[in-house]
C-alpha cells in the first residue's frame, strides 16, 4: 500500500486503486502521516504560475533598459580616472615600446648623421608612429570584450576617446621628449623647439585622425595600410619623385602645422568617434539582440 | 585538407590590404609619371622604375609586418600538428607571390614598351628584376622580424615605413659609408656608387634571409604568441 501513496498524492492513480487507498487511509494513521509528507513534496514541485513567455520577457527587459536613465557616477573625475586606468591595462606593453624604439631610431639618425635635420626626421616618423598606434584603438567586434562593452552603461564613444587619448597622448609626449632632446643636443641641422614641434604636430594630428576614420569603417589592418599609403604619397611629394608642380606643392602644404589642418584633424576625429558610437559594432555582427 | 583548399583559405585570409597594396602602388607610380611636370623621358622612366623599387616594396613590407599579432585563432593554430611557423611562411609566400606577380607584370610592360631602358642606371631585363625583388624582400624581412619581436602590427608597420621614409630623404647620408651603401634600398633610382649595385642587391637579399630566419626562431617560442595583439 505504501508504494501507491506517491501516485495517490500526485493524483495519478486509476479510479479503482484510489478508492482502495482511500479506504485504507481511514484506518491507518501511519499511512496518513506518510501521505501528508508526499502531499507536501507534490505541492512544492507543482508550479504555482505558468512561466513567462521568453519573447515577452526579453522585450520587457530591453524596453526597461532602454528607457531607464543610466546612473551617473557620483564622482566624475574618479570615474574617469578608473576608466583611464582600466583602458591603460588593455594596451599591451609592446605597443608603446615599439613607438619608443622607432622614435629612438629617428633621434639616432639625427645625432649620427651630420646632414640630417631633426625637424625633417621627426616630421617623417612621428605622424606614422601615431597613426599606426591609433589604427589599433578601434577594435569593434574583434575586441574580446565587445559584448561586455556593449552591455555596460559606459558609452562606447567615451571608451574610444579614452583609448585615443592614451595612445595619441603617449606618442605626443614621446615626440615632444624627442624634440626636446634634439633641441638641447644642438645637433647639426636641428632647429629650435618651436620649429621642431611645428614640423610634426599638424601632420601627426591629420594622419592620426584619418587613420581613426579608416579604422572605424574598415578595421585596423586597412587603417594601417591606408595611413602608410597616404604618408607615402606625402613623402614622394616632398622632393623624391614629384617635387615640382602645383600638385606636389598642394600635398606638402596640406601636411603642415597650421590652424586649418588642426581644425580639419579635429573635425575628422569627431566624425569618427560619432560614427564609432552609433549602435552596433561595424563588422556586421550584432553584439546585442535587436528589439 | 587538400593543398589547393589550404592555399585558397590562406589567400582569403591575406585580406584586402595585402591584395590591393601592390596594384595601388603601381597605379600611384603611373599617375605620378603621367603628372610629371619635368620634360624628357628620363625622369618619367625614373618615376616608373621608382614605383617598382620604392612603392611596391613598401606595400609588401607593411603587409608582412601585419602577419603576426592579429590572428584570431592563434591558440587553435598552436595546437594543430602543423607548426605555426609553417603557416606563417605560407602566408608570407601568398603575400610576396602576389606582390611579385604584380611587379613582374609592370616590369614586363616597361620592358616591352621601352621605358625600362630609358633610365640610364637600369640593368638588363633579367638581372634588372633585382630592382624590385631585393628591396621587396629586404623590407618584408624587416617587417616580418619586427612583427615577430614586437607582436604589434602597428609598431612593426611604423618601423618599416620609418626606415623607408628615412632612406628616401637621406640618400646621401646613407651612402657615405659601405654598410649604408650595401643596405640602401633604392640604389637603382636614387643612385649607387659605380660597381656597388650588384653587391647592394645581394646584401639586401642576404639581410632578408637573416631577418626571416630570426623571425622564425622567435615565432618558434609559441608562448610569446598567446598574448599577441588582439585588435
Can you tell me about this structure?
- The complex is a heterodimer of chains A (291) and B (231).
- Chain A is mostly helical and 291 residues long.
- Chain A folds into two domains: 2-42, no CATH class; 76-276, no CATH class.
- Chain A has helices spanning 5-10, 15-27, 29-45, 54-67, 76-90, 94-112, 118-135, 146-151, 156-185, 193-218, 220-240, 246-254, 259-276.
- Residues 281-291 of chain A have low confidence and may be disordered.
- Chain B has one domain.
- Helices cover 72% and strands 0% of the residues of chain B.
- Chain B has ten helices and no strands.
- In chain B, helix 5 packs parallel to helix 9 (197-219).
- The longest helix of chain B has 32 residues, at 3-34.
- The mean pLDDT of chain B is 85.
- At the A-B interface, helix 6, helix 7 and helix 11 of A face helix 1, helix 2 and helix 6 of B.
- Biggest chain pair contact, residues each? A-B, 52 and 51 residues
Strand content of chain B: under 5%
By oligomeric state, this entry counts as heterodimer
Into which percent range does the helicity of residues of chain A fall? over 70%
Number of domains of chain A: 2
Q: Total number of β-strand segments of chain A?
A: 0
What overall form of chain B do the CA principal axes indicate? Answer: globular
Give me the strand/helix succession of chain A. Answer: HHHHHHHHHHHHH
From the alpha carbons, calculate the radius of gyration of chain B and give it in angstroms.
18 Å
Round the mean pLDDT of chain B to the nearest integer and report it: 85
Secondary-structure element string of chain B? HHHHHHHHHH
Class based on secondary structure composition and strand pairing of chain B: mainly alpha
Distance between the termini of chain B: 28 Å
Unreliable residue runs of chain B = none
Tally the beta strands of chain B.
0
The number of distinct helices of chain A, counting runs of at least 4 residues, comes to: 13
Shape of chain A: rod-shaped
The largest pleated sheet of chain A is described as:
none
Q: How does the helix and strand content of chain A classify structurally?
A: mainly alpha
Calculate Rg of chain A over CA atoms: 34 Å
Amino acid at each position: 500500500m505504501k508504494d501507491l501513496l506517491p501516485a495517490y498524492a500526485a493524483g495519478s492513480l486509476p479510479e479503482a486503486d484510489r478508492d482502495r487507498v482511500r479506504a485504507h487511509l481511514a484506518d491507518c494513521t501511519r499511512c496518513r502521516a506518510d501521505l501528508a509528507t508526499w502531499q507536501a513534496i507534490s505541492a512544492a514541485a507543482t508550479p504555482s504560475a505558468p512561466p513567462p513567455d521568453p519573447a515577452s520577457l526579453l522585450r520587457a527587459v530591453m524596453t526597461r533598459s532602454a528607457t531607464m536613465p543610466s546612473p551617473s557616477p557620483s564622482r566624475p573625475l574618479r570615474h574617469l580616472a578608473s576608466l583611464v586606468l582600466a583602458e591603460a591595462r588593455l594596451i599591451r606593453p609592446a605597443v608603446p615600446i615599439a613607438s619608443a624604439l622607432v622614435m629612438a631610431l629617428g633621434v639616432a639618425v639625427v645625432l649620427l648623421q651630420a646632414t640630417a635635420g631633426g625637424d625633417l626626421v621627426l616630421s617623417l616618423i612621428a605622424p606614422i608612429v601615431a597613426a599606426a598606434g591609433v589604427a589599433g584603438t578601434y577594435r569593434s567586434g574583434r575586441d574580446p570584450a565587445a559584448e561586455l562593452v556593449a552591455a555596460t552603461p559606459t558609452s562606447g564613444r567615451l571608451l574610444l576617446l579614452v583609448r585615443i587619448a592614451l595612445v595619441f597622448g603617449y606618442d605626443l609626449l614621446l615626440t615632444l621628449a624627442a624634440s626636446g632632446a634634439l633641441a638641447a643636443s644642438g645637433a647639426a641641422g636641428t632647429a629650435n623647439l618651436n620649429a621642431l614641434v611645428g614640423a610634426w604636430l599638424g601632420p601627426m594630428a591629420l594622419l592620426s585622425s584619418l587613420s581613426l576614420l579608416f579604422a572605424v569603417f574598415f578595421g585596423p589592418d586597412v587603417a594601417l595600410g591606408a595611413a602608410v599609403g597616404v604618408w607615402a604619397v606625402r613623402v614622394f611629394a616632398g622632393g623624391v619623385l614629384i617635387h615640382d608642380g602645383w600638385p606636389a606643392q598642394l600635398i606638402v602644404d596640406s601636411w603642415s602645422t597650421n590652424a586649418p589642418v588642426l581644425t580639419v584633424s579635429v573635425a575628422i576625429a569627431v566624425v569618427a568617434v560619432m560614427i564609432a558610437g552609433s549602435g552596433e559594432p561595424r563588422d556586421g555582427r550584432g553584439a546585442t539582440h535587436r528589439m | 585538407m587538400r593543398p589547393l583548399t589550404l592555399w585558397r583559405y590562406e589567400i582569403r585570409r591575406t585580406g584586402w590590404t595585402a591584395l590591393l597594396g601592390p596594384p595601388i602602388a603601381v597605379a600611384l607610380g603611373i599617375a605620378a609619371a603621367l603628372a610629371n611636370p619635368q620634360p624628357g623621358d628620363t625622369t618619367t622612366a625614373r618615376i616608373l622604375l621608382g614605383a617598382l623599387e620604392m612603392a611596391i616594396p613598401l606595400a609588401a613590407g607593411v603587409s608582412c609586418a601585419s602577419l603576426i599579432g592579429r590572428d584570431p585563432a592563434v591558440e587553435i593554430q598552436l595546437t594543430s600538428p602543423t607548426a605555426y611557423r609553417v603557416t606563417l611562411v605560407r602566408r608570407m609566400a601568398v603575400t610576396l607571390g602576389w606582390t611579385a606577380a604584380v611587379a613582374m607584370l609592370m616590369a614586363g610592360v616597361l620592358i616591352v614598351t621601352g621605358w625600362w631602358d630609358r633610365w640610364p642606371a637600369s640593368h638588363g631585363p633579367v638581372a634588372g628584376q633585382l630592382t624590385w625583388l631585393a628591396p621587396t624582400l629586404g623590407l618584408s624581412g624587416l617587417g616580418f622580424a619586427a612583427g615577430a619581436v614586437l607582436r604589434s602590427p602597428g609598431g612593426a608597420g611604423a618601423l618599416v615605413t620609418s626606415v623607408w621614409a628615412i632612406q628616401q630623404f637621406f640618400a646621401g647620408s646613407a651612402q657615405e659609408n659601405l654598410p649604408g651603401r650595401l643596405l640602401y634600398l633604392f640604389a637603382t633610382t636614387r643612385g649607387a656608387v659605380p660597381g656597388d649595385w650588384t653587391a647592394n642587391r645581394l646584401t639586401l637579399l642576404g639581410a632578408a634571409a637573416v631577418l626571416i630566419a630570426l623571425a622564425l626562431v622567435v615565432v618558434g617560442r609559441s608562448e610569446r604568441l598567446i598574448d599577441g595583439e588582439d585588435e
